[in-house]
């Protein structure tokens, strides 16, 4: 990739990865970028970096060379976040520049030793501290704990108004050599919005409270540019990604959008017949449905859609005295990721004892999910016409609940 100019004395360097599961579990068919930034005053700082997989640090080092930067020209390595997708390159960097000086939080200092055996000189910073690079570039630091690890901070260049928030305001999606919102078409911006919404639900969602605090801190700063650790740089309209993140964070408590996600699994088609009726009924009310069959849909996509939907339909039969197992896997993930406070309805078929509903209640309790369910419907064997009519009726009731909730805000 090419090094690109962000703003006065500031450059973006990046590496894309495409053929991995992010965090070892999230598919990224459209890839993800890891962004690093160089700010040059009289002194030179590099802010954030890349992972250490598959020779990726070399991609970064090649970009130093493009800029005519020698390793020894770097005065400060600013580490906003210690997760190895941003800090992994330090292992390689240490081999070529052993004495580099680090600027980071006290918590990150401990992690540096634990992850990479790095105990270089560290300038430990906390909220309100600054570092003067010269030529007016004063970096101000703000701790934003738990966005997304406890040690995380954001860096702000007071001269250019550029915020380097690392994981906050990030997105999935590989980037090109034109990674700025002012260079992208509306279609490309929409692409990154979809990527950001899945990134948020998969990675940041459980930390929505800390994210809201970080957004509040951001809004006190005269931010002109947002330069995150993943995804595009927001140079012409940083407010767009701030507003998107505000919405995503608010979805944690709900309401989210006036949309309904239908998650279903069925072995022999009995439950599925109800799915067809409820999807039809909801769509007839003019509400967007996101339909996911389990285990075919990955929980990454299900999580994205549940995160942005105010309503959820769960349809699954009983299987060995519990619920259809792939549904339990998905619900467990939704609980772990704190997809809380939804309007919901569940139905499904059973053969003799039932048991799916009991396990659903257990999962809801375990994760304190606080989903507000309409009366569930269980039917023996194949659904009768009355069952299907009732399922459609519940679909319309769910639409009414969702609409009322969204209207009240
Ligand atoms: C492997 C297996 C295990 C099942 N275990 C139970 C059970 O423990 N209790 C029960 O009431 N029904 C059980 N059933 C019956 C199903 O719930 C029933 O066949 C239902 O109609 C399946 O719905 P579907 O057609 O949507 O897959 C089981 C079915 C299968 C195939």
UniProtKB/TrEMBL annotation:
SMART domains recorded: Lactamase_B
Region forming the signal peptide: none
Residue intervals of the Flavodoxin-like domain: 260-399
UniProt GO MF annotations: electron transfer activity; FMN binding; metal ion binding; oxidoreductase activity
Alphabetized PROSITE patterns for the sequence: FLAVODOXIN_LIKE
Membership in a protein family: In the N-terminal section; belongs to the zinc metallo-hydrolase group 3 family.
Protein name as it appears in the record: Flavorubredoxin
């Amino acid at each position: 990739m090419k090094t690109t100019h962000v703003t006065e004395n500031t450059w973006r360097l990046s590496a894309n990865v495409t053929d991995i599961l992010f965090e070892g579990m999230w598919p990224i068919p459209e890839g993800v970028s890891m962004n690093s930034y160089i700010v040059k005053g009289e002194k030179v700082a590099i802010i954030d970096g890349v992972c250490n997989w598959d020779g990726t640090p070399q991609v970064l080092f090649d970009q130093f060379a493009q800029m005519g930067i020698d390793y020894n020209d770097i005065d400060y390595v600013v580490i906003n976040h210690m997760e190895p997708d941003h800090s992994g390159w330090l292992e390689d960097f240490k081999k070529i520049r052993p004495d580099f000086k680090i600027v980071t939080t006290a918590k990150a200092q401990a992690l540096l030793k634990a992850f990479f055996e790095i105990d270089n000189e560290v300038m430990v910073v906390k909220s309100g501290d600054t570092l003067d690079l010269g030529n007016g570039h004063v970096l101000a630091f703000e701790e934003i704990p738990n966005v997304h690890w406890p040690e995380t901070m954001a860096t702000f260049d007071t001269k250019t108004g550029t915020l380097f928030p690392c994981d906050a305001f990030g997105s999935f999606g590989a980037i090109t050599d034109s990674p700025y919102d002012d260079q992208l078409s509306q279609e490309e911006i929409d692409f990154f919005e979809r990527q950001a919404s899945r990134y948020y639900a998969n990675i940041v969602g459980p930390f929505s409270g800390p994210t809201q605090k970080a957004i509040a801190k951001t809004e006190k700063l005269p931010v002109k540019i947002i330069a995150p650790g993943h995804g595009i740089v927001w140079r012409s309209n940083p407010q767009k990604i701030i507003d998107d993140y505000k919405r995503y964070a608010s979805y944690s408590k709900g309401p989210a959008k006036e949309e309904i996600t239908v998650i279903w699994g069925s072995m022999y088609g009995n439950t599925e017949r109800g799915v067809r009726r409820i999807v039809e009924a909801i769509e007839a009310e003019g509400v967007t449905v996101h339909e996911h069959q389990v285990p075919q849909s990955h929980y990454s996509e299900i999580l994205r859609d549940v995160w942005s939907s105010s309503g959820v339909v769960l349809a699954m039969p009983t299987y060995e005295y519990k619920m259809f197992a792939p549904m339990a896997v998905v619900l467990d993930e939704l609980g772990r990721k704190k997809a809380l406070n939804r309007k919901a309805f569940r139905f499904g078929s059973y053969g003799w004892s039932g048991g799916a509903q009991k396990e659903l209640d257990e999962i809801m309790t375990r994760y304190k999910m606080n989903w507000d369910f309409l009366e569930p419907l269980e039917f023996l064997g194949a659904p009768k016409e009355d069952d299907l009519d009732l399922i459609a009726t519940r679909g319309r009731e769910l639409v009414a609940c969702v609409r009322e909730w969204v209207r009240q805000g």
